């Protein structure tokens, strides 16, 4: 019911916020190698603001909470990642309007990826969050729709796929975002945004296990 879903979304928000705080330095280190050393601070600040904004939303349903995540990230986080993550949470939240089901979460994941690609215009292989998100979303969808897995198992598969996507960003050259200014010098560094995407997917999986 609505209350159970609200608590699940809140629990996911708390987990992601705690994880961003934990990874703040690591994400910033990754961004200092190929960017402007702010990705950890951006994500941490954004999700701390999300925690504050969603704290009093005692009557909100899942879709409203997720929409607030997006709106807050857009307003609190500048740079590339804020509008990309924020815009996606905001628009994909509509897919949860009738509740959280295996089907609606697949629709959410697909809408999320679509929006990142719409806004950022990065193909797979440009060394961005798209490289982590794409295999995660495709694996989640296939696991639910073709392999008939439960959402929690599908998420476990998605985490594995996402990790491989993150690994794939290291040897390739950046073609989008700040890292692309470095050209070939971006080779050999793991992408910060792909890494934060993995952290988020891992925390969603942990929430589903709960
Ligand atoms: P900024 O680069 O503006 O400082 P952040 O450091 O917060 O913003 O985020 C950088 C991350 O954003 C990159 O590691 C990359 O994953 C992601 N990114 C940058 N540009 C794009 C894009 N056009 N499409 C998708 N992701 C992008
Ligand atoms: Mg940066
Ligand atoms: Mg920046």
From TrEMBL:
It comes from the Archaea. Signal peptide: none annotated. The keyword DNA damage does not apply. NCBIfam families: dha_L_ycgS. InterPro entries: DhaK_L_YcgS (IPR012737), DhaL_dom (IPR004007), DhaL_dom_sf (IPR036117), Dihydroxyacetone_Kinase (IPR050861). It comes from Haladaptatus paucihalophilus DX253. PANTHER family: TRIOKINASE/FMN CYCLASE, TRIOKINASE_FMN CYCLASE. Keywords: Kinase, Transferase. PROSITE patterns: DHAL (PS51480). GO terms for molecular function: glycerone kinase activity. SMART domains: Dak2. One of its GO terms (biological process) is glycerol catabolic process. Pfam families: Dak2. Residues 7-206 form the DhaL domain. The lineage of its organism: Archaea, Methanobacteriati, Methanobacteriota, Stenosarchaea group, Halobacteria. This is Dihydroxyacetone kinase DhaL subunit. The keyword Hydrolase does not apply. One of its GO terms (cellular component) is cytosol.
């Amino acid at each position: 019911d609505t209350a159970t879903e609200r608590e699940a979304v809140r629990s996911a928000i708390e987990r992601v916020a705690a994880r961003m705080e934990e990874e703040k330095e690591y994400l910033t280190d990754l961004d200092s190698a190929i960017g402007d050393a702010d990705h950890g601070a951006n994500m941490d600040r954004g999700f701390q603001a999300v925690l504050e904004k969603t704290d009093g939303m005692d009557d909100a349903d899942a879709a409203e909470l997720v929409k607030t995540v997006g709106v807050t990230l857009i307003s609190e986080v500048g740079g590339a990642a804020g509008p990309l993550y924020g815009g996606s949470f905001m628009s994909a939240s509509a897919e949860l309007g009738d509740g959280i089901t295996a089907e609606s979460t697949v629709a959410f994941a697909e809408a999320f990826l679509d929006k990142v690609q719409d806004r950022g215009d990065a193909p797979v292989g440009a060394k961005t969050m798209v490289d982590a998100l794409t295999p995660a979303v495709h694996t989640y969808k296939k696991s639910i729709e073709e392999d008939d897995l439960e959402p929690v198992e599908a998420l476990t598969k998605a985490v594995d796929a996402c990790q491989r996507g993150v690994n794939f960003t290291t040897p390739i050259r950046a073609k989008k975002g700040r890292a692309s200014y470095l050209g070939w010098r971006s080779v050999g560094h793991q992408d910060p945004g792909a890494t934060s995407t993995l952290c988020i997917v891992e925390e969603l999986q942990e929430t589903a296990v709960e």
